[in-house]
Amino acid sequence: MPKRSKTISALRAVTRFYASIETTRNTVPPKRRHIKPPKAQGIHARMYRMEVKHGKKGQAGQHKRYQDREEHYAYIAREGRFEERGDLELSESGNMPEWAANDPTVFWDMADRYERANGRTYTEIVFSLPRELSAEQRVELAREFVQNVLGERHAYSWAIHAPLASDGLEQPHVHLMFSERVNDGIERDPEKFFSRYNAANPDQGGAGKDRYFNTKAFVREVREEWAITANHFMSRHGIEARIDHRSYKTLGIELEPTRKVGIAKYAGERVAMAETLAQNRAIAKRNGDRLLLNPAIGVHALSTLNSIFSRHDVEQFVFRNTDSADQYQQVLARMLNSKELLALAAPGKEGEWFTSAELRAVETRLVSRAERMAGIEVDPVAAATADQVRDARNLKPTQLSAFELLVGNRQLGVVNGAAGTGKSYVMGAAREAFEGEGFRVLGAALQGKTAEDMQRDAGISSRTLASFLTAIEKGRLTLDPQTVVFIDEAGMVGSRQLEKMLGHAETNGARVRLVGDAWQLHAVEAGDAFRAVSKAAGNAGALAGLTDIVRQKDDWQREASLALSKHDVSTALNAYIMHGSVFLPESLAAASDGLVAFALEARDAHPEDSQLLIAHTNAQRAGLNTAMRAALSARGELGADQPVSLVAEVDGERSVTVVPFAVGERVVFGRNDYGLDVRNGTLGVIEGIASRQLDGATLPEPGSLLSVRLDSGKHIVVDTGRYADLDYGYALTIHKSQGVTVDRAYLLATSSMDAELSYVGMTRHKKGLVIASGKDVFPDAKSLVRSLGKPVEKAFSAAHDVRPVIRDNPEYTHRQTFAKRREIAFEAAAERRRDRSPTGLRAELGATLAKVSAKDGPILASEQARIRQLTTALRRRDQVQPGVSYDGRAWDALVALSGETRARELVDAATARRERETAARYRAVERPLSIAGEFEQRLSKRAEAREAAIAVPAAPVEIGPPRLPAAQRDQFSLSVNRYVDSWNDLKRIQRSGIASPPKWTNELTENGRRLDAMWPRSHVHLLRAIESDRDTQRALALPSGKPRAEAMITGIERAAQREHERQHGRATDEQQHGLEREGRKPYQSMTPAERVARRDEFMTNVEQQAQSTDERDRLLREQGRGIDRGKKGYGRGD
Q1: Residues 6 or more apart whose Cβ sits within 8 Å of residue 781
Q2: Start and end of every MobA/MobL protein domain (predicted)?
Q3: Which of these ranges, 373-377, 462-466, 515-519, has the smallest mean pLDDT?
Q4: In the chain, how many domains are there?
Q5: H helix or E strand, kind and range, residue 717
Q6: What is d(CA 751, CA 745) in angstroms, rounded to the nearest whole number?
């Protein structure tokens, strides 16, 4: 390369480097800072898109430049005509070797130059970002996902692009490219880095490659990893949107997935692009046609993962599955008018919320069925048998109560037990008692590993719940009154599965025993079923709680686990911090290495103890597995690596993955196989590896025979040509570890964890727990405690009331335009004015009126004023005439802004105010009017009578509600925070179905008294604000502190003001009417019919008075004077 070209390239590299630093510092370019993301409104699946691609030699450098939008068309079309798109938001790189640390482009150029001819220079993952995220949140989520997938081991570059989509909004997505070569810290020059790996002498060869990235298993796991990472991220940031990585086919949704139109389509073959776009439009149109015929398909799709969903979710779903604007409007109207769609009253949530009629019916049946079964009495286990089993076991007090419930006389029994309270021990005792009476005891669990643990620990023959239900439906398994079904970890079971299970049991008279923890991980499917069933069983007296922690050996660990069972993560973590069990090095990678070192140290000191490494994500689990395996191999505890071919068949296609295993390797099974007697999550150790042979001859098909000793002690032989779901088993994810008990556990904590995940991860051990994370994730222990204690809840549609959908709402049906409605109203008003106006009557009769004498002048002027007064009164009557049509949009907007309770209060207050004003106007002209005659007697009293008729009693002086003294505001803030903490704790316990401890109830009452002592009735006003004030309800979720206290004080002030206005309004009505002196019923206490009757009576009197006035005009004119003449005319004709 000429010297000048090298200089220009170097300057460009330096410019890119400093530009990347500046971009990273600002996070978002200034031109994009003004963009405000759409507001999330629902807890439902957003568009999911992920692709995994591999780059060939010669493409890496160009692809990096494509990410940076420097030579986009050169990468795609190999021509220079591609126009700059300008949609790059941010580009970052990491884990680079020292020689590429300042310019990541150098790394990808060297990969193109030195990688083997048939080698892969990079693997690319492209995934969409939810639109609900702000620009800063996009960057944060992208960084978190990259860290979860790659950690500190692989060089990577990623970029966020945000082009415009077909709907005119942004389409943010990430391109992540990374090297399969492991950056192991050994210094190598570029040529050596990309050379062949030397396993015997790593420092003499190139960097090793992780072959797992070439497998289909990686594609499946990284798709799931992205869904988990994104959903937890949005949950932490209060965004209720969710994504789902599963296909329509897996979810049972009868729609076609569209094909992705990639960047290559835009820059490459135009024909292919047009064909793909045409196919997608055709698929969208077919989906729209299906939804038009059967909108229940869409409602079912929206309710697959969550019980409730928002209107925004409906609109997004319809938009993705329609082709044109007309079809969109038609399908949206069909779905909104579908009988399958139910509108819900969801206090505390903005906008419209819905559920499906099918899921609502399922959850309603589930609760009703649970109430019935919990109340049905059956023959209990004989007292002698129960006593014999009880005496043979050392049961704690709460365990004894749970045992008595399980063997008692209820068809349904529920045990809600904290982690480590001995649920399996109690189930084993109940199983022994039932079998002693001749019952058949069966077990089921959502996960195969949980079913296996129940079978091992409690002695109950168990299988997965899906397999259990399938066997019943296909007639392979029958239930009867002599059958008892135990369901372990019932909190992870969704509404549909649990309702189906209880339905089979109730029909056949079988007994069901649900055992779980309402505070651990919720169901993946729709519905918080276990919590709802626990509440129903508690109302029927069929609920028992286990609170005596027996898993942990030390008292302080048991107290910490008890705190975790209440989601008091702060207390539990502080206890482990005080005992030196929390490790915070500089980085998450160092934390991972530290956990492995701790595990090896404990392995040497206590070789008989079982151990488990725990992480949240699959990528973190894989990193721990790799680190632990490398350490054991270096210590000589594993045999030589042997390549094992794992043969899998996916959608009819055969896939072979070669993974190194060794004798002594700890493995985990990832799929249920009843022939091998293994479940998803079963652990074992490889004791031998052999090739597949038949009659002494090695078979040509790929695969190996693994001799595995399971943790249960059973020996099996696994043919990897038929069973491919094997992985290293030194570490498990938190989800898979639920229900597992080991002697020592090691938890890698990350920001994606919440209170539920922390509860599960921190309660798997008996003897010891080490928690580690990095300061690059949590700068200090305080941030660690705050992040791991984030609350999380799952919705249940049956917990919300159904509100009627206003079908005459203009949004749902055809409506008249505003102009048309005003035209009709205007014509009607003009007609009423012509018919009822006294002035109009006077004009028509003017020609027939006679003249009057001059002495009648004052009386005539007075009567003219009276006519004008009557005209005004009639006009006002027309304005307040009832018959205003219902405007659904106004009501919906008011509910969305203020909540339904507050909205009704506002409407009632406005109605009462209008009625008071109307009554006051009527009283101004309500007194009787006399007919013409005796003018001389009335003249002296005219002015006084008119003033008395028009006058309205003055309203009392308003005195506002009592205010909080400024000097006591700080002390009151502390007290109100204590009250809200007590209120939250009590509500959390009540939602779980456990009886409220008297101590907590008394504490809440005492805190309320303290509030009233400083600010009278503030306790009552706070409760009203919590019940009906939307801002106060939102503030309940804030942590204890000044912002929450100020929000609560504001809510108290609003509630006090509303109470004052209601009381003041009643007093004003009584003062204004003053009807008690006349023996008449006050207007506000009348029924609607009585009010209408009184108004009709009054208007009849007004009409009669108008006619009498016209008659008076006629008489006066007959005397020779026109009523409209000026004062000069009053002397004429004398």
Answers
A1: 573, 577, 582, 584
A2: 89-267
A3: 515-519
A4: 6
A5: strand 715-719
A6: 19
